[in-house]
Every structure is written in structure tokens, then in C-alpha cells.
Amino acid sequence: MNKIEELYNNLGKIEDLPAFPAIAFEVIKLTRDPDTTSRNLEDVIKKDPNLVSQILKMANSSLYGLSREITSLNHAINLLGFVQVENIVMISVILSSVRKLPLHKKFNRDKFLEHSFGCGVTAKIISNILNLNFSSAEFSGGVIHDIGKVLLDLYAPECLDLILENAYNKGISFIESEMELYGVNHSMLGAKLLSIWGLPEEIIDIAENHHSPLNAHNKLLVSAVHVADLLTYSEGIGFGGNYAKFTLEEDDGWQFLIQEANLKEEFDLAYFTFKLYEEIDNAKQLYFEES
Fold first, then answer.
1. pTM for the whole structure
2. Which of 30, 39, 196, 273 has the fewest CB atoms in 10 Å of its CB?
3. What domains are there in the chain, each with its CATH number?
4. Three-state SS sequence of 158-203
5. pLDDT tens digits, residue range 51-81?
6. How many angstroms separate the CA atoms of 138 and 162, rounded?
């Protein structure tokens, strides 16, 4: 048994395994409960000053163009809506948690976060353009899809170095390099971690199948994140160790999206690129302003 297999098999027994913040998990459960009120969310969120700050910052951003300042958390929650509140909480806890971890010196934390965040935003853009309704799962799942790489960096940094070196030397993807060397990959590790955390099944589905969307339970949702992952790489947003070349038009996930969304053949892929940069720039002002 190699070290990555050992890590996967014993993941639940690791004493210092990162924990998903309880407050974020509670917010996710509340936002998906039809009986939840804004007061219920306020009671939970106000326990974390950082989340309160992020939500008020979003509510007072130029995206909403209000003439007066929003100072009430409850008002901000009602203005933004539960979906956007969940998005803010998810990205805030991921950014905060990853930055606090003692990551390996060869693991570029900022580039990893930039890629993860870019994938979430791009998945949201795809969802909006294609009029798909995923109730924010595409954003949350996009942000967290590569969390298994953090586990590699924490518990098997020497293996991570070999995976990256092999991928670079052979011009292959990170996951191809993992499977070639160890037979276990970051998608498997990430899905197991999210299961231990007790996150929603749709988020686990994204982590487990974002490289093989046609194997997913929700093929459309995971295909959107899969394509977002590819577009984020192609536009140079962050870095996750992928050196493989690809043609989007020939990708199975992209073809599935086209089929399910009834896209025309003359669909303008350049529009995705335009919206990608526009929305990334807007979002960075909100989420990375103080990073």
C-alpha cells in the first residue's frame, strides 16, 4: 500500500484532520430549509464577526447601487437572499481555513485559492448564461472541488511534489499523474473528507466527479463545474497542477451541457471569456480586497 492509499483508507482516523466550521455548516442547512427565516440566519451568522462583515460589505457594494448604507445584518440578508448569503459564507470559510493551514512550501496557496474561487465564479457564470438553476451548489462546489489537494499537501507533501513533477514532465493532467503514480486521486480524497464533514451530497458529487462528470449523480451540475474548471485553467486563473492540453468542444462535459441546455452550434464561447473576466474582477474586489 502506497502513502496516498494509506491516507485515503485512514482519513477518518487522523486526529488533526481539518474540521469544517460548524457555523458554516449550520448556515448551509438553514439556507436549504424552506421554513428558515432571515431572523434564523441572523441569529447564527451574528456569532461570527467576519461573516457579518463580509455580508454587510456585499450588501453595500456597487452591485446593488443603494443610496444609503446598509448597517443591519437582517436587512442585508433580505437584500442579498439566502443563496447569496450561502455563497458568501462558503467562500469566506474556505479562504479563512486554507490560509490558516501549515501548507507545504511548494504548494502555492494563493494560486490554489485563486483557481478554486475562479472555478466557483465561472460555474456561476455558466449557470446564469444557460439559465440553469442549481441553488448556488455550482458556486459552493466549484470553490471546494479541489479540497483533496490540500489533504495531499498536509499529509503527503513529498507525493504531491512527485505528482506535480510527473504531470509537468509528461504534459498530463494532475489527476492523470496521480492515478499513474498512486492509483488514488484528490477527487477521491476530497469526496471522503466532505462526507466526513457531513456536507450536502451534491457538493460531495462535485468533488468526486468533477473530472468525470458523466459518472456523477447530477450530471448537469457536475458538468457545469467541470467545464468551469477547464475554462479557469485555460484563462490562467490560478493554478492546480494541470499541464494537459484540451479542446473544450470535444470535452464530454461540454457536449453534455450543450445537449441539455439546447445550445445552438453557433454559440459564442468568447462570451464566456468576457463574462468570466468581468465577474472575476467584480468578485475579487469583494472577496480578496483584504487578502
1. 0.86
2. 39
3. 19-100 (no CATH), 104-291 (1.10.3210.10)
4. HHHHHHHHHHHHHCCCHHHHHHHHCCCCHHHHHHHHHHHHCCCHHH
5. 998 889 888 876 566 667 889 999 999 988 9
6. 31
